[in-house]
Amino acid sequence: MRLSLATAVSHGRVYRRLGLGPESRIHLLRNLLTGLVRHERIEASWARVDEMRGYAEKLIDYGKLGDTNERAMRMADFWLTVSAPHSVLVGSGEGSREDRRGRFKPEHPLTYQYYELQ
């Protein structure tokens, strides 16, 4: 009789299974990113916030390219369901923080977490 813990094997998956399928996962992440840009803070489960963080940071990096960059605007159009001004993603210059990366506060993995733009 073997007494061991089952290991979490991903079997080739590189992302978490969120939603009902791949399309549902993209819609879920898109809605989370839109809520983050609209309210500058979201509360969701740890897995959802952790998965969304990389996409939010990539969107901020594209936002730094400016609103005249075609690739940055295509990324914003895909990931955001509302039109957000360029200053929301990267700051307006004077009096704003230069680095708008979010603050991720991990606590217990089963509690709700929040991700906040700074």
From TrEMBL:
Coiled coil: none annotated. SUPFAM superfamilies: Prokaryotic ribosomal protein L17. Pfam families: Ribosomal_L17. It comes from the Eukaryota. One of its GO terms (biological process) is translation. Signal peptide: none annotated. One of its GO terms (cellular component) is mitochondrial large ribosomal subunit. The keyword Cell wall biogenesis/degradation does not apply. InterPro entries: Ribosomal_bL17, Ribosomal_bL17_sf. Keywords: Ribonucleoprotein, Ribosomal protein. GO terms for molecular function: structural constituent of ribosome. Belongs to the bacterial ribosomal protein bL17 family. PANTHER family: LARGE RIBOSOMAL SUBUNIT PROTEIN BL17M, RIBOSOMAL PROTEIN L17. This is Large ribosomal subunit protein bL17m. The gene is Mrpl17.
